[in-house]
Amino acid sequence: MGAVGHDDQLSAYECPEGTDPRVARSRIAIIDATTALLLEGGIDNLSVDSIAERAGVSKATIYRHWPTRQHLITDALSAMKRSVEPPDTGALRTDLLTLLHGVAEHLGTPAGSVYCTLSGAAEHDAELAELRRDFAAERGNAMRTILARGMERGELPADADIELLLGRLVGPLFYMRMARGELAPDHWPEALVDATLAAPAP
Predict the structure, then answer these.
(1) Disulfide engineering: 145 pairs with which of 64, 68, 86, 96, CB 3.0-4.6 Å?
(2) Does position 185 have pLDDT exceeding 90, yes or no?
(3) pLDDT tens-digit series, residues 15-60
(4) For domain 92-198, which architecture applies?
(5) How far apart are CA 96 and CA 15, in angstroms?
(6) For 23-32, b where at least 16 C-beta lie within 10 A, e where not — what string?
(7) Per CATH, which fold does 21-80 belong to?
(8) What is the C-alpha to C-alpha distance for residues 71 and 109, in angstroms, rounded to an integer?
């Protein structure tokens, strides 16, 4: 078990190929400013005014590229943590272990901290609630792919509840991080995978 880390983490935002260099510079500056502000103060204190000031651009420039704050935050969060390709080792257990260790590590990064602030702020903001729902759904796709693949190979019952299995696997890690402000012990991913596979949910 360890404290939540706050080492610097640079965004990995890339503009679409063929973007005008001047436009690309503006977009990257805005994403970098958004990322920095998210890491410094979370979503609660993030405003378009503060982003514009940090990036050295006008609010009109920001809205020209992102119609809402939600769209901008989505791109910034995605840049902080790129989409994860589901591992395919040929065995359900090792695939789950690889992915779950990655989830546990991510929760200890600054990007993981930002996601936690998103979850809290979303309780009182419909726009952020939609962002949280969409972002969580997208991040769970790799786990869903692995579980579905395990069902196809006969490593899980054909009627297994994928959403319940996903909750069993990642839920305890998020509980430790968000309810207790701690990272789960290092042995938890393996223990969670083995317990889940020993009694899969129908």
Answers:
(1) 86
(2) yes
(3) 667 677 888 889 999 999 998 898 888 887 789 999 999 999 999 9
(4) Orthogonal Bundle (1.10)
(5) 32
(6) eeebbbbbbb
(7) Arc Repressor Mutant, subunit A (1.10.10)
(8) 22
